[in-house]
Amino acid sequence: MENQMIDSAQTAKFSALNCIDLSSPDIHHSVSLLKQACLDCGFFYVVNHGISQEFMDNVFAQSKRFFNLPESEKMKILRNEKHRGYTPVLDEHLDPENQVHGDYKEGYYIGVEVPKDEIEAEKPFYGPNVWPEPDTLPGWRETMEKFHQEALQVARAVARIIALALDLDIDFFDKPEMLGEPIATLRLLHYGVSGIGHTSDPSKGLFGAGAHSDYGLITLLATDEVLGLQICKDKDAKPQKWEYVSPLKGAFIVNLGDMLERWSNCIFKSTLHRVLGNGQERYSIAYFVEPSHECLVECLPTCKSEKNPPKFPPILCRDYLSQRYMDTHADLNTYSKH
Predict the structure, then answer these.
(1) Is 266 left (phi over 0), alpha (psi -120 to 50) or beta?
(2) Domain containing residue 90: CATH number
(3) How many Å from the N-terminal Cα to the C-terminal Cα in the chain?
(4) How far is CA 68 from CA 65, 71, 192, 283, 321, in A?
(5) For residue 92, what is the DSSP state?
(6) 193 contacts 247 by C-beta, under 8 angstroms
(7) Angle between helices 140-165 and 27-40 (to 10 degrees)
(8) Are the C-beta atoms of residues 128 and 84 closer than 8 Å to each other?
(9) Which residues does the UniProt record annotate as the domain Fe2OG dioxygenase (predicted)?
(10) How many CB atoms lie within 10 A of CB 100?
(11) Which residue in 8, 338, 18 sits closest to 203, CA to CA?
């Protein structure tokens, strides 16, 4: 089966994605490339983003250190109700219609750090992070906190280009209720854990990550060199056609989330994607960027008209995200206490 999966990957179609250079002085060219990508498939590469390759390599190395810990150690920092911490294999179930079980991946959520005395019950995604003990992984927390901060700056730069592509002011998404105080979540991911799901088989409902679209504004994804990510440009096609996205060293793969699709009145696409495991271990680092809890997500003024009225009712960001997480993650009560 593993050889069949590898052979199919070698003959599979690959998606050609636009590449946005954040260091380019030609902002109009960047806007044009991004707009074309958002209208076409909702995925594109971002290069020259300001995070050094040396530091990126260190973040991946630190991620591997965590996932190499014994399962008993990882379960000590199981994710909490604020969506911080470790998510075991099968914790997430992204495509119940086609998956026999959940996703064959494990992960680790790190959000914006909020002191315990500032936690508010109505803010389900603001809270203190949970960390491995310092003597278990020295320097680990400091590395992840630095990456979280640097990735947020990249996301804000991308959001400014998106604003221009939607005929908005360049600082539209910089407002406090948007990316001024965002729900920004770093998630370390590890595929290829030993066991039944080590190699994906769509015909049997086995996936590294089931088909889904992301929930929020944008996602930055850094990957190793192992193939696995696939996108489906037309989710309504029968049968669906899947294309691989090639890893690009030093780049972020960026995709749009459902919230931006709602905001843009479906002008910009939130695209289905999934991960197929081919028998190799695979590591990736996702950075999910959403506006603040209080942000009201409603049709943008540049995306509606008499002939194209809003397709979705307004909704608060916290309500929308809470429901999406509830729909796709296991109930914490299913885990025994550690």
Answers:
(1) left
(2) 2.60.120.330
(3) 36
(4) 5, 9, 12, 12, 30
(5) B
(6) no
(7) 90
(8) yes
(9) 182-291
(10) 12
(11) 8
- Paired tokens of 298: 């409603």
Peptide bond into 239 cis (omega under 30): yes
Cβ atoms within 10 A of the Cβ of 291, count?
28
Q: Is residue 160 part of a domain?
A: yes
Amino acid present at 284: S
The answer to whether 266 and 208 are in contact (CB under 8 A) is no
Total structural domains within the chain:
1
Please count the helices (runs of H) and the strands (runs of E) in the chain.
7, 14
CA separation (Å) from 141 to 21, 59, 155, 159, 328? Answer: 30, 10, 21, 27, 27
Q: From CA 330, how far away is CA 181, in angstroms rounded? A: 28
Domain assignment present for residue 337? The answer is: no
Tokens of 237: 């096609």
pLDDT for 78-88, tens place per residue? 998 878 899 99
Using one digit for the tens of pLDDT, what is the confidence trace for 257-316?
999 999 999 999 899 999 999 889 999 999 999 998 889 999 999 999 999 999 999 999
